[in-house]
Amino acid sequence: MTDKQISDWQEKVRSSFGDETKLYQYLFETMDNFYYRYLETTVSRDMRTQKLAPHLWGARAVETSMVDALKIQNPIAKKGIIELAKSVPKDQGPAVQYELLADVEELTPEHGKIIFVAQINWGFPDFEDESKQFKKSVVFKYEDLAQFRKELAQKLEEVCASFL
Question: Is this structure's pTM higher than 0.90?
């Protein structure tokens, strides 16, 4: 590529993602696609990114089918879900909760830092017992818009591997 081609390409990227609103929009659209692929359950469908706290965005899904919940391959979560299925009678409606979160520390065209968290929680009914949760975090730092575009989905794939 010539310097002019590189410069033109960088300008095109900046105009597409050049302000914080567009960066958030791209982040949310990308996350929404991941909910469909990794978080949708028999009862949680068509999820969209929501603000959960200051700088914290994401979605939460609930799985009430223990058969489907047990399809998870993660050995820690699977062991916990088996225990849940054994200890809570079906008529009490045992459930597993899944979350995909983005803790946005900084999001600018020049650089940023987002901590993605995937969580599987079998602490039914209140989901507050941290010993009944599996959590994986992936830190995503970028130094320019091209890196943001290129690596965002890769980092989400990395954290979402927990849901397989």
Answer: no
